[in-house]
Structure formats: C-alpha cells, structure tokens
Design brief:
single chain; 313 residues; alpha/beta; Nitrilase/N-carbamoyl-D-aminoacid amidohydrolase; seven-stranded mixed beta sheet; six-stranded mixed beta sheet; 13 strands; 23% helix; 24% strand
C-alpha cells in the first residue's frame, strides 16, 4: 500500500521560478503527510495558457504575442537545469514526482514549446519526459507536436507509472501503448474537468485494469497575477472559476476512491495498492489474453524527432 498525492493548486502564471517554489512547498507538505508519489497538473510550470480559449489569433495577435513571449521566456529547458529545485525536492524527500511543464530546448533555438510531462525519480533524476502527441484545438497556436520517445512506462518504488496528457487520453492507440507496457499507475494531468472527464478516468481504469490518477487544474480569476497582459480583458472577474479542477483517483475496477476535488485548491490524497492490478487483469487484459495479437498489431515509432543531423568532419 502506498500513499499518493495530487496537488490541485494554481501556479504563479507565467513565472517559472515562483511556480517551482510553490511546487516545492507542496511537495514538502505532501511528503510530510506520507505521500511517496506526488502529481502536479498539466503545463503546471509556468501555467497552462488558458488565454488561448478566450482570444482569436487573427483579431488579438498583439496580445497573443505578448503572452506567448512571456510563456516562452518562462518555459522549462530541462538540459539547462530549470527543474533543479524540483528534482532536489524529489531527492530530499525520497518521492517520485510527476509534473506538467511548458518545455523548450534553448540549445536548439527554443522557438517551439512543447506541452510535456516529466517523471522525476526518488533519486532526483528525470526518468522520463513525454511530449503531448497532439495539442488540442487552439493549443496548436502555442505547442508543437510531440514524438513518442517518452511514450513509456517507468518503474518507481510505488509501481510502474505511465502518463498521457489531457485529451491524449482519448487516443485509443496511445492508451494501448501504455497498457502493453504493463502500466500499473496511469497518470493523466489535464486542463479538462467535469462529468465527462471523470467518466473517462473511470473508463480507462476499467479498460486498462490499472490505477488512474486524474490530475486537474484549479484556477480562479483571483489566481491570475496582476501583471499578466490584458488581464482585465481576459479574466475580469476575480471570483470566476476558470477551471474547476476535479482531480480524482480511480481503482482498477473503475471505482472512485478519492475525489473528485471540485472547485478547491488543495491536495487530494489516496492509499493505493498496485497488487490489485494483477488479479483485475485475470478477467480482462487488453494488451494480453484479451487483445488478440494474432489479429491486431500496433507499431509505435519511439525515435526522437530531430530537425537536423550534423555531420562534422
């Protein structure tokens, strides 16, 4: 039995350092409560670009440009050590952390942002990075397409962890790729919420016969910093719930065991037992005895996408 924690608290939007500091505080709190796996939402550092659902690129280009420039400046470059403090927190508290980030690679110019999720091991090392394969609708004005290099499960002290981001969880083949790697704890950081999303989390648990952690985003108008461009235009009501959160934990039989955490900035805790996964797959293993590999076959290209190959004499 292991305790998990889903951090459903807002970031400091467009401020990487302040958001990481807030994440480190939450990790310390959750670790003190006994959690060994700690999850943060989609694009948590430095915040999900919520403005894309309220602006039209053709009519609001100047504002979009200002917001994007700040997002890009505060994006996470893993190679440059931008996650150093969060990795140190994982090591100090001996916990595994799953965290959504806006990612860039400044060594390759940094012009493209990715909606990514990292798994940080209890040793403080990034043990997997997955980039969202298909940005959803207006997200394509912000994020590039990810590859499948991180479409993997990884072993942790809590169990075998795999991640898909938000509406990637509606991609049957992406889910199947995780099921085929024996995922035991399926983590879904998201900006979605509501009954439809919760039903999706329950379906995935039933389909994959695994634990599902839906990590939602809690965000009110009052959570948006005052220096965010076009604040009065985009988020005029400080009392508005921009996102309801709805973090939830579902067991391998599709039963909700914690949450949904609705319209609350808090930490959702649950005790999970990965030993329940194997007996659940006795009756249904969609990537095994129930999968008919003699009829169906999936090929996943996990080669990292590289724009340029340099050959130096």
């Amino acid at each position: 039995m292991s305790k998990i924690a889903i951090i459903q608290r807002p970031p400091v939007l467009l401020d990487r350092s302040a958001t990481i500091a807030r994440a480190v505080q939450s990790v310390a709190e959750a670790a003190a409560a006994g959690a060994s796996l700690i999850v943060l939402p989609e694009s948590y550092i430095p915040g999900y670009p919520a403005w894309i659902w309220r602006l039209a690129a053709g009519r609001n280009g100047a504002v979009m440009g200002q917001l994007h420039a700040q997002l890009q400046a505060n994006a996470v470059d893993i190679a440059s050590g931008d996650l150093r403090d969060l990795c140190e927190a994982a090591s100090v508290h001996a916990v595994t952390i799953v965290c959504g980030i806006n990612e860039c690679e400044r060594g390759n110019g940094g012009g493209t942002l990715f909606n990514s999720v990292v798994v940080i091991g209890a040793n403080g090392e990034v043990i997997n990075r997955h980039r969202k394969l298909m940005p959803t609708n207006p997200e394509r004005m912000v994020h590039g397409f990810g590859d499948a290099a991180g479409l993997r499960t990884v072993e942790t002290p809590v169990g075998r962890v795999g991640t898909l981001i938000c509406w990637e969880n509606y991609m049957p083949l992406a889910r199947y790729a995780l099921y085929a790697q024996g995922v035991e704890i399926y983590v879904a950081p998201t900006y979605d919420c509501g009954e439809g999303w919760i039903s999706t989390m329950r379906h995935i648990a039933l389909e994959g016969r695994c634990w599902v952690l839906g990590s939602g985003t809690s965000l009110r108008g009052s959570d948006i910093p005052q220096d965010v461009p076009a604040l009065a235009q985009l988020f005029p009501d400080p009392d508005e719930w921009i996102n309801d959160g709805d973090s939830v934990v579902v067991d391998p039989q599709g039963r909700i065991v914690a949450g949904p955490l609705h319209r609350e900035a808090a930490i959702l805790y649950a005790d999970i037992d990965v030993a329940l996964v194997a007996p659940a797959r006795r009756t249904l293993d969609v990537a095994g005895h129930y999968g008919r590999p003699d009829i169906f076959e999936l090929q996943v290209r996990r080669t990292p996408t590289t724009a340029v190959h340099y050959v130096d004499a």
